Each structure stands twice: as C-alpha cells, then as structure tokens.
Amino acid sequence: MKFFSDNAAAVHPRVWEAMHAADTPDSGYDGDAWSRALDDAFSDLFGTECTALWVATGTAANCLALAAMVPPHGGVVCHREAHIEMDEGGAPGFYTHGAKLMLAEGEGAKLSPDAIRAVIDPIRDDVHQVQPHAISITQATEYGRVYTPSQVAEIGSLAQGRALGLHMDGARFANAVAHLGCHPAELTAQAGVDVLSFGCVKNGGMNAEALVFFDSELADVVRYRRKRAGHLQSKGRYLAAQVLAMIEGDLWLENARAANAAAQEIASACGSRVFHPVEANEIFMVLSPAEQASLRQQGFDFYDWTAPAGTPGAARLVAAWNSDPAHVAALSRAIAAL
Amino acid sequence: MKFFSDNAAAVHPRVWEAMHAADTPDSGYDGDAWSRALDDAFSDLFGTECTALWVATGTAANCLALAAMVPPHGGVVCHREAHIEMDEGGAPGFYTHGAKLMLAEGEGAKLSPDAIRAVIDPIRDDVHQVQPHAISITQATEYGRVYTPSQVAEIGSLAQGRALGLHMDGARFANAVAHLGCHPAELTAQAGVDVLSFGCVKNGGMNAEALVFFDSELADVVRYRRKRAGHLQSKGRYLAAQVLAMIEGDLWLENARAANAAAQEIASACGSRVFHPVEANEIFMVLSPAEQASLRQQGFDFYDWTAPAGTPGAARLVAAWNSDPAHVAALSRAIAAL
Amino acid sequence: MKFFSDNAAAVHPRVWEAMHAADTPDSGYDGDAWSRALDDAFSDLFGTECTALWVATGTAANCLALAAMVPPHGGVVCHREAHIEMDEGGAPGFYTHGAKLMLAEGEGAKLSPDAIRAVIDPIRDDVHQVQPHAISITQATEYGRVYTPSQVAEIGSLAQGRALGLHMDGARFANAVAHLGCHPAELTAQAGVDVLSFGCVKNGGMNAEALVFFDSELADVVRYRRKRAGHLQSKGRYLAAQVLAMIEGDLWLENARAANAAAQEIASACGSRVFHPVEANEIFMVLSPAEQASLRQQGFDFYDWTAPAGTPGAARLVAAWNSDPAHVAALSRAIAAL
Amino acid sequence: MKFFSDNAAAVHPRVWEAMHAADTPDSGYDGDAWSRALDDAFSDLFGTECTALWVATGTAANCLALAAMVPPHGGVVCHREAHIEMDEGGAPGFYTHGAKLMLAEGEGAKLSPDAIRAVIDPIRDDVHQVQPHAISITQATEYGRVYTPSQVAEIGSLAQGRALGLHMDGARFANAVAHLGCHPAELTAQAGVDVLSFGCVKNGGMNAEALVFFDSELADVVRYRRKRAGHLQSKGRYLAAQVLAMIEGDLWLENARAANAAAQEIASACGSRVFHPVEANEIFMVLSPAEQASLRQQGFDFYDWTAPAGTPGAARLVAAWNSDPAHVAALSRAIAAL
Fold first, then answer.
1. What is the pLDDT of residue B2?
2. B152: in domain
3. Whether B227 and C131 lie within 8 Å, measured CB to CB
4. What's the Cα-to-Cα distance from B110 to each of B176, B266, D282, rounded to whole Å?
5. Which chain B residues are within 8 Å of A207, Cβ to Cβ?
6. Which candidate from C9, C23, C57 shows the least CB-CB separation from D11?
C-alpha cells in the first residue's frame, strides 16, 4: 500500500488507449497529427489562444520555460523550497546558463507579493548584482497548498509592474483546479501567467507533460531549446497522445479529484496531526518514529519528512489518481487508531 | 508507403508488451526493478561489465556521453556530417557547455585515423587553441556505412594513444552489427569505445535509448547530468522496459536484419544509382526530379537528398524494422521500371 | 576626503616603477620573464611550492578558481553575504556553467564548520539535489573580519574530510595577514586552502590580482580557462610586474598595515558605534542620517550601509593604503565630535 | 630585432602619460570621468552616436559582442581562419553559452556575401539545425587583408536582409583605416556594422580595447555581461585613459601608419615572396628553412608559418607602431640579399 508519491503510479487506461491509437506511422518529431492538435486542444481548455508543446518531464518543462524568460545574467524569484531549487539537480542552472534562483520565504511554500518584494526590492539596480527577470510559483505547492485565482493575480500584477515573466510549475495543477473548482484560465492566462508547466505524469500520464504558453513568442524560442536539450522525441506522437488523452473529457480533473478525495479522507483521520492544510493530494503529518514503524508494519509505505519544531517526527503521504479506496480506508483507520 | 525514416515507425509489439508489464507501481526514477536490471542485461549482451542508463532520445544520449568526456574548454573530433554536428540543434554545445566540434573528412561520413590526425595534429598545444578530448563516430554512419571491428579498433587505438575518449553514436548500431555478423563487443568494448549510444527508437522502440558505459566512472557523472538535463523520468520503468525488450531474445538484431534486408532488396533494384554502398537500412540513390515525381505519384514517400556532382538529383530511402514486404517489393519494381 | 573604498585608490609608485621597467618587448601573453617569475616569487612568499597566475580582477580570480574545483552540476558553499554571491553579477554562475552557490550563515560574513555543516548535511546524496564540491571563504571578510589560522584550518579539515575543495577569496588577504601578524602559509597552504585569490588591486595595484594554487593540477586547467574567458592579456608582463612589485620587499604588507592602522585610528574615534570588530581596513559604524549629513558636509565621503536593528542608520568607511593621515585624523576628530 | 607580433610591443608614451594623469582617486569601475568620456569621444570619432565600453582584451571584446547578438542556440558565420575560431581558446563558446561558429571560406581570411551565403543558404529552417544570428568579420584580416567600405557594406546589406547582426573584429582596425585613408564610419556605422572591437593593444596600448556599439541596446546587455565575465575592473579609469589617449590627436592612425609603412618597406624587399598582399602591418612570405635560419642568425625574430603549396617554407613578420626604422631597413636589406 504505497503512499510514497503520485509520480510512480500506473498509467491511466485511457492514456494507454490513446498511445496505442497513435501507433501508426506519421511525421516524425512534432509534425504528426497529435502534436499538431495540441495548440487547439489547450486553447479550448483555457478559452484563449495558446501554444502547447509536449516535454517528457516536469523538470525539462520548468527549465525550458525559465530559460525562455530569463537571460543567463538574470535571476528568477522562487520559493526557498520550490522544486526547481530543491529537487531538479541544478537543472535551472543548466537550462538558463547560470541564471540565479532568488529564494523567497512563505508558509507552505507559497509566495506572496510581499515575500517577492522582500527579495527583489533590496537588489541594487547595477551590474554588480543579478537582476530579477521572472517569478516562478508552484501550483499546488510542494506542500500541497493552493493559490487562489486572486492570489495568483496579485503576483501576476506585481510581475507585470516590474516587467518580470511569470511561470507556474503546475506539476499538480490539476489538483489545484480540482480543489478550487475554478476555470483553469483564472489561475493562468487571466492572472498574468506567461507559461504553465501543465503536469500529466503525476496524474495518470506516462512520460509527457505540456508546456502551455500564453505568450507565443516564448514558444518560438522553446522549440529550438527543446531540440537543443535533446527533448524533441522523434516519435512525439506518443507524448502528444498522452497529453490529449488527459484533457479529453476532462480526465485530468477526474483523476485529480480522485486523488484529492483520497487525501481528504486520510487527512480527516489525521486530525490535528496535519501541519499543512490539505488542499491537493499530499498530506504532511506529525508522526513519531514509533508510529511510523507501526504504520509500516501494517504495510503502508510513505516518506519520512522533516518534523516541525517541537514534534517527535513527521511523514509525507501522497494519494494518486488510482489510490485503492480499500488502501485509503485502511490507512485512515490505521492512523485513527494510533 | 513511407520510406522517409525509421525514426517515426510504429513500436514493436514486444516493446508494447514489456511496457504494459511495467504498468505496476514501483520505485520512481531509476530505482525500479527494470532500470536496475539494465546493467546486468547489457553486461551479458557485451560479455563484459558495463553500466547502462536509459535516455529518451539519441541526441540526449550522445550529448550526455560527450559532456562526460570533454570539459567545456575542450573539443570533440567528429565527421563534418555527423548527426551531432548537423542535426542536433546545437545540443553538443549545450551539454558540453560550449566545447568545440572539430570536423573531420571521410567518405560516407566515416572517420579514419588519418582523417582524425589531419584535424588534431595541426592543433598547437597551447591555451589559444581548443584541445581535443574525445572522438565521436557513428555506427552505422549517417550514410548507412559500417565500420568493421578493425576499423573501430584502429580509431580506438589512436584515441588511447592520444588520451582521447571514444564515443560511438549507435543510433543504428543494431543495423551495423546485423550487417557485420560480429559480436557487439568487437565493435565497442574490445575496440576501445568508452561509451555507446545504443539506439532503440529507430529499431522498434518508442522513446528509450540506452547509454552503455564501458568506463563506469563516466556513468557516475552522467547520472547527475541526466537529472540536470531533465531526462530522469519519474516513471523510468517504462523506458527500461523498452530497452530490455529490445535486447531480450535479440529483438534488436531481428528488427535490424529485417530493415537491412528490405534495404538490400531495394538497393538491388537501384543498381548503379546507389552512391553509398548499402550496409545498413538506408539507400542513397541518384533520382532525377522527374523520377522522384513518378515514384511519389505511385505512392512512395521519401526525402530528396543533395545530388552528387554531375547527377540530376538524389533521394534517401530508409527501410524500417516493419517495412511492409509488399511495399518494399512494389518500390523495388517501380525503381527497376524507371 | 574619500573613504568610499580601497578599490579605486591610486596606484603605488613602486607598482608604477615596476610597470615601466616592463615596458620593453618580451614574449607575449604569459611567456615573458615577469610572468615566468611568479611561481618562484609566490613559492618563496608562502614557503611552499605553488603556482601563480595573474588575472585582472578579483571576480575573475575567484570564479576561475571555483570553476576549477566545481563541476557544472555541483555546488559551492559560501556565506550568504560573500562577494561571489552578492557583488559579482552572477560571475560564479557563468564561470562554473551553472553550479550552485549554497548559502551559509555566520556573524560578520564568517563561516564556521558548524555553519557549513548546517548547509551540507541536509543535502540528500542523490541526483535530485546538487552536491557540494567546494567551500569558499573570504579573508578578510566582506565585513572586515579575519579568520585566525586555526579557524581556517578547521574549515580546511572539514573540507578535506568531505572531499571538498577550499578556496579563499583574499581580496584583502594582505589586511588579514597584517592584522594577524602570522605567516601567510598558516592561513593557506598549512590550513588546507587549495587556491587563494591574492588581492593586489585594493592594496596599491592597478589591475592585477594573483591566483595562487597550492594544488598545481588546478592551475593546469585554469590556464585554459583564463584564455577562454578572455583574461589572457597579450602584454601580460605589465600585470606580472604589478604583482611582483607588491610582494617585493613586502610592499603588500606595508600597504595593508598602513590601511589597517588608519582604520584603527578611525575606529577608536567611533567607540561603541562600531558594529563589526575592526580587524582589517573597513569600519562599519552606526551613524544617523543627521550625522551622515554632518560628516559629508565636512567633506568626508563614504557609503551608507544597512543599519543594524534598533539603530538609526549606518555607514561603511574604508581606509586605503594611501589614506592621507591628515584626512584620517580629521575624520577621527569629526566622528568624536558628533 | 623582433618581428613576432605587434601584440607584445611597448606602450606608447602618450598612453603612459594618460594613465598617469588618471592616477587620482575617482569613482570605481566605470563611473569615473575617463570612462564616462568614452561615448562622446567615440561618437565624435565616428560622427554618429555610439556607446563605447573598455575591455581588457580583444578576445573578451569579440566574445561579449557576439554574445549580445547571438542566443545560445544560434550561430555566427565567420571565416575558417578567423581569430575567434582559431586563437581564442574556445572563448566564443564560453561567452555565447555554446553557440556555433559557422565557418566560411575566402581568400586571405576575407569573407564575401557569396561565401557567407554558401554557409547559410543550405541551413534548413528547422529546429534540428542551428540557425545563424550574426556574422563576424575581421578588419584587417588575420592575413593582413583589408575590406574596402563597399565590401563591408555588401556584407552589411546581406546581414540586414537576413536579420543577422554584424560584428567587426577590429584588432587591427587602425591599420585598415590607415591603409584605406577612409573615414572610420565608412567601414562601420555606414556599412551596417552593429558592434566594433576597436583594437588598441596591438597599436600602442597596454591592456585596453574599446567595444563600440552602433546599436546601443546591445551595450545595455554587455554592461551586465562584462561584469559577469569578471571584466569590469574597479580602477577602470586606467583603461579608459588608454583608449582616450589612442584616439586623441588621432594617435591610433599615427601609430598604424607607422606600422603599415614599415610593413610596406619590408614587403618591397620581399618582392614575389609575399603571398598575401600587404595591406596592413603583416607580411606573409615564402622563406625556405635555410633562409629562415639565415635571417635568424642575423638577429631577426619572427614566426614560422604554414607554407603555401609548392613552396619550401614560409614566415610571418609583423611590424609594430614602434618598429625601429634601423631594424626595418636592416631586415629589408637582409631579405633582399637572400
């Protein structure tokens, strides 16, 4: 009963189907019918013209987006615990050719205009200091927290006022939208987001994410950079098919809702153990070493986590699109019984 | 009836099967059972201990290999028409952080010790000139030409003598081995090759190549670089499964033999039109514009090619692992009838 | 009466003399007699074999050193307020090809083994996180604080134990040695420092610093990197001559002592206003806006500084090798009279 | 009697004077009066508004210029024997973050529109091939050949038509202008050049070149990049003073005329031995090994050079701004007597 992460779950049957349907020769790279359908599909989804490119991983999606907005001598404001800072093996430095991540604070890995200003306002406008060129936020955050449309819009407004690009790492964008019940455009195009990494892999996909550009000039550069990064697959139709399957019939929301619901069920059992509000599919809970051992003995797998001050220990549990209801119920019971 | 390229062909059924068999949760990234089986599988295949990593594209495989052998201030000798020089969108410059491709001559895109020496011998050993650190050869070459084991070994010997790394771009390595009928180690480990990009995508895979390291220290660096390049997929087992399927039961050779045989059949029909000996699955033939139009009218698709001096036009045709025998026969007849 | 910085002061007469003495044709780049004398001169100075290269700026010196010790996918631990982090315009990212600066805490911009461990110990040893490869400390620090030989040695010991390189940014190394009265080797070769940026420009030079390698293999790489960075001047003898003049007859110490003494004189006048112990040639003092205005009205120039919590304002004053004793006395009186 | 190169000659007395005149404290970096005077001085010289920055070396000047015009995924057309390709230790790859040098042919290292088109026309406009973004020409060329104003303008016109930037490496720009007797703007601003590396070091300077931007937006980026490259010297006034001295009273032309005249005198003695027309201050001549030995025995120093086909050997001789007339005469006599 694995609650490690959603990023190693199985692939959704409809994604498999779509991949098989693409198993016929077509043009190579992104010249095939599936890849060519992405712009329209995402323009429909977001209700505004946009350009969409498939990419195999979230790291590549994020970093291609950043590199399109930030020159090598510039910087990107992000949260101190953002995935791009903590868990991408230095990929932003590689893709941007050495631009600087400028680390801001914020509860639950959420940025706010104030937190961003606290980073950028002290920067002297001279050549001795790296100047910010973009902001990157994660939706839902690395702690499963969700920005409301107005929270994103406030950051978007700040970005625009300072001539900064705005990137959204949406590895769990679906979970955020499912949680909020809003239109996806409210969190992106309408809120000033320039580029969205639209996650699929954690949500039932195999190995395709979408980079969605609300500023199509950025996409023009990224086409070259994607190839240059070795990310232009020759049989791109198998990636495009995955992405299309995810948005067809709102499978992305269906899957995210399932994961979120499972997380809510577990969170209910956790009660006050939870130390980040559960707004997506991740639960961060206080759990002593003995309790961890007990749960593991009962067959539940999850990651240890850094314990909040004054607590004996902590764990992270993640529900996936296909978390078995029986496992979820069992886990909930086991936690309640601790 | 498409003879454009092998790189957009369908995926082999046994590769699909293997991917489906991997559709069960396991550790993320390359911690799963399939990924962990790669080293042994390739060590068996090559009869020598080696380390193997999956990568989604040949470009990424090639460039990760080069970056492991060449410092940013160094250079790589390759053929003027090597894929890394002509068709990777500058990826070597990206991955190596600006190292230089040093272009050598050679018929059929094949390098020889003499051609390599002609490039490196004039380089002054001072800091004003970029110093070579590696050689990269393509097997089979971009013109479907094949290095014999002794030809590789001669280059390997030169590389060793000059303290240069040796990389083999094996996007069509299977076709070369199938053509030669030799043991794969004769072309690699025994011939001084340090890293091989072992191609699968053109040979029935979907989106997984293998980087095979005969020098495992190089692999240690590449593990970090692969992540840093956004190429460490979280559901890596689907890539590992593809690669394992390709080498299980020698599917790689079976597929390559089929493609080579189809190419031979077409080549026979071409007679003296062929201007590069057909040793793999590619045919380069003289074909006038009128003849091109005629073939296309009959339903055959292929790429125009640069015509050799004194000829009216040329075309490239590529046979794939699954080229339909009926199409191959029809094409052969159509060519013979020109 | 300028107390802005030591980095724009005039050039010492003996440096001028040495430059003029080099105004005769010799081999270009670093093949001249002056450049070739550097290794011996520094080996004598440090009492151990070392290799020394001239570089025009401290930023280039620091970053060439880091790039020699840290691969693009690695990281460097430095203080949050280190010059390489705050004031080099992202040069470390450029030279290292995107390696990460890992920011540690410490009073007065001084690192300690504990502070370094607090940064590196939480780093998971996996490819998702950037791994540290070196430590960089500044001697004297950006706040004019000095590491004792044993403090450096403790860091050197930690570095060695973790297989990390150790770089010392010695833009004001002379001031530190003058303050401590120790042998320069006690702070470097004997304490585990691999490379020292030996500053001259702030100390009476014009535009030459020395990179001193106690590990000569690092120097071999830097020779190539220096050229590749456009820092190999063709008339290098004018730089070498500056550096040689600085160490001949211990001019470097003589100048540093003068600057330190001037700073001490001013500091005495400041009394409890000083908020960083004055150990080199910089004074950080509490100074209200009105007091700042008053001093400026009397003809004294200096930089505003960030005020410590609970104070009305602050200023940074820097004494140079040639600070006019009359100006220093006048400033001291003016401060005392505030 | 050294005829190795102009790049290691002594510094002109008026340059020394200017440097000494700058030996007074002023603002650091490029905030001083000398540095701030550069824009006006060069605007006067070229008769058009331009922006000028000092840089210590020609390599840095060239590569900063290229990096401002070419994205990392782009390319620069230059001659196969251009200094940036042959003798800058890979600096273009460093500064541009891996952009590609696209090598064109041309007699005497001169490019022509046809030669440029031969390189760029075959490039497919797709992401698999690196796209050109700029052209770089050297004036005078690496073989001492000079582009006329109309030759530059033709290249400028091509550049404009293809939306390519145009950079001129003017390490010996003064020699070219002196040879042609034209206005410097005819070779630059009026001919479509966007950035000029205006050489001083080979022409009597110590360690300052000027980057002259006829497109000031490029300069805005380069200011950041110069700092990021460690090329923003804190005592920049000593560099600015050199550059100003060079253009004051047309010292740059005076020096170049002297060097050119010396070269002409030697060339006359060489007669048909010369294999590149002598248009600047370099002489490339056929010289057998025995003749080389003879000249060297008589005290003349120079570099061997690659012999043209069918000749027994060759040498390169370079006259400098201060080549001693007696030495020049002696060399001419010695050559005539061979």
1. 85
2. yes
3. no
4. 13, 23, 39
5. 56, 207, 233, 235, 238-239
6. C23
Beta-carbon contacts of C185 under 8 Å, excluding residues fewer than 6 positions away, are C46, C47, C48
Domain span at residue D273 reads: 252-336
Distance from C-alpha of D9 to C-alpha of C234, rounded to nearest angstrom: 10
Average model confidence (pLDDT) for chain B?
A: 97
Is position D1 within any domain?
no
Handedness of CA B173, B177, B183, B187 (dihedral sign): negative
Based on the structure, what is the number of domains in chain A?
Answer: 2
B223 within domain boundaries: yes
Asked whether residue D6 carries a pLDDT value surpassing 90, the answer given is no
The neighbouring-strand residues paired with C254 are: none
Percent pLDDT > 70 in chain D is 100
Domain of A59, CATH number, reads: 3.40.640.10
Least CA distance to B96: which residue of chain D? D98
**Residue that is written with structure tokens 């860091």 in the block:** C155
Q: Would the CB atoms of C206 and D235 count as touching at under 8 Å?
A: yes
CA distance A265 to chain B (A): 21
Q: Please indicate, yes or no, whether residues A95 and A120 belong to a single structural domain of this protein.
A: yes
Given B71, B128, B223, which is nearest C127 (Cβ)?
B223
Distance, first Cα to last Cα, chain B: 18
The pair of structure tokens assigned to B127 is 């800091």
Has residue A2 got a pLDDT over 90? no
Q: What are phi and psi of B270, to 5 degrees?
A: -80, -30
Strands D131-138 and D74-79, sheet pairing? parallel
What 3-state DSSP class applies to D137?
strand
Strand ranges across the sheet with C100-104: C51-55, C209-213, C195-198, C165-170, C131-138, C74-79, C100-104
Confidence of residue C25 (pLDDT cuts 50, 70, 90): confident
Q: Does C262 reside within a domain?
A: yes
Give the per-residue pLDDT at D268: 96
Cβ A230–B229 below 8 Å, yes or no? yes
CB A105 within 8 A of CB A78: no
Are the beta carbons of A71 and D97 separated by less than 8 Å?
A: no
Asked if the model's pLDDT at residue B25 lies above 90, the reply is no
Residue with tokens 């094996």: B170
Give contacts of B221 with chain C, Cβ < 8 Å.
Answer: 71, 73
Cα(D12)–Cα(D242) distance, rounded to whole angstroms? 10
Measured in degrees and rounded to the nearest 5, phi and psi for residue C49 equal -65, 130
Residues of chain C neighbouring A94 (CB-CB closer than 8 A): 72-73, 97-98
Q: Give the minimum alpha-carbon distance from B229 to chain A in angstroms, rounded to a whole number.
A: 6
Name every chain C residue with its beta carbon within 8 A of the beta carbon of D10. 23-25
Domain end (from A249, A273, A292): A249
State the average pLDDT over residues C33-58.
98
| Beta pairing partners, D315 | D285, D304
Residue-wise DSSP of C4-66: S-GGGPPPPHHHHHHHHHT-S---SBT-SHHHHTHHHHHHHHHTS--EEEEES-HHHHHHHHH
Cα C234 vs. chain centroid, distance in angstroms?
A: 25
Do D245 and D276 fall into the same domain? Answer: no
Task: Report the C-alpha gap between A261 and A269 in whole angstroms.
Answer: 13
Identify the closest residue of chain B to D59 by CA–CA distance.
B128
Spatial contact of C231 and C54, defined as CB atoms under 8 Å apart: no
Domain CATH number, residue C325: 3.90.1150.10
The predicted model gives B75-79 an average pLDDT of: 98
- Final residue of a domain: which of C249, C281, C300? C249
Select the residue from B234, B237, B318 to test the A interface by mutation, using most A Cβ atoms within 10 A.
B234
CA distances (Å), origin D293, targets A129, D289, D304, D338: 56, 6, 11, 11
Instruction: Report CA dihedral (D214, D217, D220, D226) to the nearest 10 degrees.
Output: -60
